[in-house]
Each structure stands twice: as C-alpha cells, then as structure tokens.
Design goal:
The protein is α/β, with parallel strands linked by helices. The chain folds into two domains: 21-316, Aldolase class I (TIM Barrel); 326-391, no CATH class. Helices cover 44% and strands 17% of the residues. It contains 16 helices and twelve strands. Strands 1-2-3-4-5-6-8 form a seven-stranded parallel sheet. The chain has a three-stranded mixed sheet with strand order 11-10-12. β3, α7 (161-165) and β4 (172-180) form a beta-alpha-beta unit. It is globular and about 65 Å long. It starts with a helix and ends with a strand. Residues 1-54 have low confidence and may be disordered. Bound molecules: iron/sulfur cluster. Residues 69, 72, 75-76, 79, 81, 121-122, 155, 178 line the site of iron/sulfur cluster. Iron/sulfur cluster binds next to loops.
Length: 392
C-alpha cells in the first residue's frame, strides 16, 4: 500500500513538472486530442488528490475560469496574471462556457462538489453587465444539476452591501479575497491600493451574509521581512476564514516588481527561506484549525517558459516541499519527546501523507538517517489524520 501512494504522488509531481492539465491538453491538439483527453482526465484525478494534503474532507472539483486582470484598477507590484494563467486575450462568455464543458467532460472520482470558479482578476471590479453574464452562465450549470456552486476571487475593497447585492439571485457559495498582507507598509509598497481595514470589513460582511470565505496571503512581498507574514497569518486567523491560500512572491517578467528587482531595489526570498516561512505561516493556520488549500503558484507551461519567472521561490511542487518540512519537524519533535536517537524507527502516517513524510526524493529519510542516526521506516495508517505522525 505504501508503494502505491508513493507512486501516485511521484506521478503527480511529474505531471506538475510537465505542465498543468489545461496546458497538456493544448499540447496534444488534433490527432493527439485523445491522448490529451486521457492525460487531462488522469491529471484532473491526481490534482484532486494533490491539494488539501492536510484534511480528509471530500475535495471540491474546481472548474477554473481565468479572467486575467479583468476588473483590476491597476497592476499590483507583484502581478502578471497573463504569465500565471497563460491566457493572453480577454475571455468571452462563450469561452467560459466552452471551458466549463471541457472540464465537465472528464471522468473523475471526486465525491466533492463541482464548483465553477472565476479567478485571475478582480471579479467584482468587472462591469456589472459582464458580471451578470458570467454569473448567469455558471448559474445555468447549477440549475441543470451539472455544477453545485460558484466561487470567485476579488479585492477586499470591492466588497460592500451594494456589490454583494449583485450576487443575490445566484448560487455563489464562496468568495476569495486577495488579502496579501495585513501590514500597512507592505500593502503600500506592493501597490495594492487597499487597506487592512478594507479586508477586515470585507471578511466580516461576507461572513454576515453566510458566504464561505477564502483568504489569500503572500510571503516575501516588498517590505516584508518574515515577521509581517507571521503577523498577517495571525490577523487572518482572527477573521476566521473557511480556508486560506499562501503564495510566495516570485518576480514575474512584465510585472512592476521585475523593474524593482532589476534595479536592485527588491530581493526575492530563496526557496529554502520561503519553504521555512510558509511552514511557520501554515503552522499558524493548522493550529487554528483553518485548512490551507494551496501553497505556491500552480505550475503551468507559461510559468515554466524561459524568462517568465526572473527570480524567487518558484517550484512546481512548492506545497509538497512545505508539507515535507512540516512532517520532518513533527518527526524530529517525536524523536526528541521520546528520547530516541538510534535504531529502526517506524513513523506512521495517513496513506495520503506518505510522500510528504518521506520528503522530496526521500530527503526527509536521508536527513533522519544521516543527521539523527536512526533507520527510519514509514508505514500507512488510515486511522490517522492527514496532518498526524505517530511512532511504531
Ligand atoms: S493582484 Fe489581483 S487586483 Fe492586483 S493586478 Fe493582480 S489580479 Fe489585479
């Protein structure tokens, strides 16, 4: 059984390195379409397994509709959605319909809900008529029973009673806010154009109106030396979101940050520092019982293209690296607690966490063996939570 899980995780990583599901599909057009279909179907299955490593909840099947920079009042310092999403032209409502149909056509094993999701822009900043078109489109799928709900991401300063009234007659379940930081100076240097007060007010109003709330934060922004990220996480916990996403800042070509980086006015986090910091930040959320549904940008052909990422901790398996660091910390703490420093030691983890326990390319096993002098083994235990490690 252990070998089965490891093979699955390794396959996922190789899929991530090769590109996103959508990009793989486009790579096999025409006569290669069937192969593309198979690859995408398998990829969808493994992507469902990949996120939410920390929870045993059924995962939603998310149909992402990317609307790069739609509704953005300006370009935030770190952002270039065209590089992130690979979409280089405005997305029409008909494009959105085709994308939904494409995702719905794939066989999948997920028992979670199917959610049509609008990402990559500032949803409530888009013109009202266009918002309505997109919402009616998604609501139509919910009405037909082919999807279960709608979610979108938007800026905190777009949330007020009037903008939320636009959603009234639509099955919107979840709103994700781009918080990025709860530090005023970091927000200013990142040219976000909103305040922490906007974020607090938006999260409260969404909760009052019973939306599921997801909050997105970043580490490594200009002016953030780590402490600000930890404080941001703590202040996000106070807002009681249903889930969070954590993104390390990377320097994307054609973003304002690229100019600062070239001028020597911004220094990116190293991969090692970003993993450590995200380990600490995610620990704050885990301790508060708040799921972390993603860490790091999703790999894509556009991000993997030469010159797209100029600097910073971009890694196709970033979340896995952070989870591996977390499991290594847990294993070390257990060894310290029990006073174990030699001999064979069996670590039990949930089957879905074997790969994180072993670490990237077995790195955790090698560290435990060479630095701590034990002979580690990993055993699956379905009775444990995803985030747990036990001995014996
Ligand atoms: S971070 Fe959000 S609001 Fe800022 S430019 Fe990017 S998509 Fe637009």
């Amino acid at each position: 059984m252990a070998g089965c899980s490891i093979a699955r995780a390794d396959f996922l990583l190789s899929m991530q390195k090769g590109g996103s599901a959508a990009n793989l599909w486009y790579r096999f057009p025409g006569s290669g379409g069937l192969l593309g279909l198979i690859v995408l179907a398998v990829s969808v299955f493994f992507r469902e397994k990949e996120t939410h490593l920390h929870t045993n909840q059924p995962k939603p099947f998310v149909i992402p509709i990317f609307l790069p920079h739609a509704g953005c009042p300006h370009q935030c310092v770190f952002c270039n959605q065209r590089a992130i999403t690979g979409a280089h032209r405005p997305f029409s409502t008909e494009d959105a319909r085709a994308e939904v149909e494409r995702y719905l056509a794939f066989p999948r094993k997920s028992t979670g809900q199917t959610i049509i999701s609008f990402y990559g822009g500032n949803f409530l900043g888009i013109a009202r008529s266009r918002i309505q078109d997109l919402l009616f489109l998604a609501a139509d799928y919910v009405g037909q029973g082919r999807a279960d709900g709608i979610r979108f991401s938007t800026r905190p300063d777009t949330i007020d009673a009037q903008s939320l009234s636009l959603l009234d007659s639509h099955p919107v379940k979840t709103v994700e806010l781009g918080v990025q930081s709860m530090d005023a100076r970091v927000l200013e240097l990142s040219k976000r154009g909103h305040t922490t007060r906007d974020t607090v007010a938006a999260a409260r109003l969404l909760r009052e109106q019973s939306y599921e709330v997801g909050l997105q934060m970043m580490v490594g922004l200009p002016g953030d030396e780590g402490l600000q990220s930890l404080e941001t996480a703590q202040r996000i916990v106070d807002l009681a979101p249903d889930f969070v996403r954590i993104y390390p800042t990377v320097v994307l070509e054609k973003s304002p940050l690229a100019d600062l980086w070239r001028a020597g006015q911004y220094q990116a986090l190293t991969l090692e520092r970003a993993v450590d910091l995200c380990n600490d930040v995610s620990g704050i959320f885990y301790d508060a019982g708040i799921p972390v549904v993603r860490m790091g940008l999703a790999a894509s052909e556009s991000l993997d293209a030469d010159g797209a990422v100029l600097a910073g901790p971009y890694h196709p398996a970033f979340g896995h690296l952070v989870m591996s660091a977390r499991f290594l910390d847990k294993a070390r703490a257990l060894l310290r607690q029990k006073g174990i420093s030699q001999g064979q030691v069996v670590f039990r983890v949930h089957p879905g966490s074997v790969s994180a326990m072993r670490g990237q390319q077995n790195a955790n096993m090698q560290i435990l063996e060479s630095l701590l002098g034990i002979r580690p083994r990993v055993r699956e235990d379905v009775c444990l939570e995803r985030d747990q490690v036990a001995l014996g």
